[in-house]
């Protein structure tokens, strides 16, 4: 997968050299180029913002540098992090992981002039994505979040790809609690069943915990879980 990120703060993306994203880059599964939007300015102050038409507080990102930047790195699938975008989900992460070339446009100030998004949409797929119902300073952190969620879905990135099948949000449920050694810690014991070696009982226990957790913490998820996927033991849980 090829990724281009455009931002006025390229330094924000140093973490993309670390851990499994860094490894995916060094093994060639992923290429990431971070671009400074100011490369595409032409004035001595390298200006990227101006006052909003219609008045109001703050500044808006000017269209010219963005237009040139997207012409230079595009076309691809353009992802614009924005609080007015569609809330990001694991399903979106899977869709983005299937794309060959992602371009991320990081807004700052009051956001990017709307014509940039409209103009890009005439040439390439555009997805405005929100991380949640709150407002960040800029799109950089949102891009790192989206990159983490997407990169771990790329074939070959995770050592054990089967972890993807059982984790939270993969099949509409939250994952069961997890434990490791020691078996007893501060008088707290690992549930016996997990030490039983009985794979059938362990699977049943995990499934029950997963259902109970989802029902308690995310009734919205439980309500949209397909009833035909519930068996007799699930209903008893
Ligand atoms: N004036 C905008 C509004 O009220 O919708 C908020 C602009 S915000 C201060 C600056 C930038 O941060 C946005 O252009 C976007 O790139 C990013 N951003 C802020 N909140 C976000 C969120 N919840 N999800 C994704 N990106 C966000």
Describe it.
The relative contact order is 0.13. Helix content is 34%, strand content 17%. The chain has two domains: 150 residues, SPOUT methyltransferase, trefoil knot domain (Alpha/beta knot, 3-Layer(aba) Sandwich); 69 residues, Trp Operon Repressor, Chain A (Orthogonal Bundle). It is an alpha/beta fold and 237 residues long. The two termini are 42 Å apart. It contains nine helices and nine strands. Bound molecules: S-adenosylmethionine. S-adenosylmethionine (SAM) binds next to strand 5. S-adenosylmethionine binds next to strand 5.
Protein topology:
Blueprint: E1 2-7, H1 19-26, E2 31-36, E3 49-50, E4 60-61, H2 63-73, E5 77-87, H3 90-97, E6 101-105, H4 114-121, E7 126-130, H5 140-151, H6 163-166, E8 184-185, E9 188-189, H7 199-217, H8 219-223, H9 232-236
Parallel strand pairs: 1-2, 1-6, 5-6, 5-7
Antiparallel strand pairs: 3-4, 8-9
Helix pairs in contact: 2-4, 3-5
The chain binds S-adenosylmethionine.
S-adenosylmethionine is lined by residues 81-84, 106-108, 110-111, 130-132, 134-139, 142.
């Amino acid at each position: 997968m090829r990724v281009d990120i455009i931002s006025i703060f390229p330094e924000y993306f140093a973490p993309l050299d670390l851990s499994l994203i860094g490894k995916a880059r060094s093994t060639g599964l992923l290429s990431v180029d971070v671009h400074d939007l100011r490369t595409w300015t032409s004035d001595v102050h390298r200006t990227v913002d101006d006052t909003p038409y219609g008045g109001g507080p703050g500044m808006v990102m000017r269209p010219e540098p963005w237009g040139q930047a997207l012409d230079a790195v595009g076309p691809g699938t353009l992802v614009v992090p924005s609080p007015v975008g569609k809330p990001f989900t694991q399903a979106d992460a899977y869709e983005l992981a299937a794309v060959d070339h992602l371009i991320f446009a990081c807004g700052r100030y009051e956001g990017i002039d709307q014509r940039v998004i409209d103009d890009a949409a005439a040439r390439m797929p555009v997805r405005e994505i929100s991380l949640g119902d709150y407002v960040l300073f800029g799109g950089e952190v949102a891009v790192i979040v989206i990159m983490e969620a997407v990169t771990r879905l790329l074939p070959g990135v995770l050592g054990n790809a089967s972890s993807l099948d059982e984790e939270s949000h993969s099949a509409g449920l939250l994952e069961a609690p997890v434990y490791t050694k020691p078996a007893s810690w501060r008088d707290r014991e690992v549930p016996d069943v997990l030490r039983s070696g009985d794979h059938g009982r362990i699977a049943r226990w995990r499934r029950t915990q997963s259902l109970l957790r989802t029902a308690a913490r995310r009734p919205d998820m439980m309500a949209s879980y397909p009833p035909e996927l519930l068996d007799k033991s699930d209903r008893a849980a």
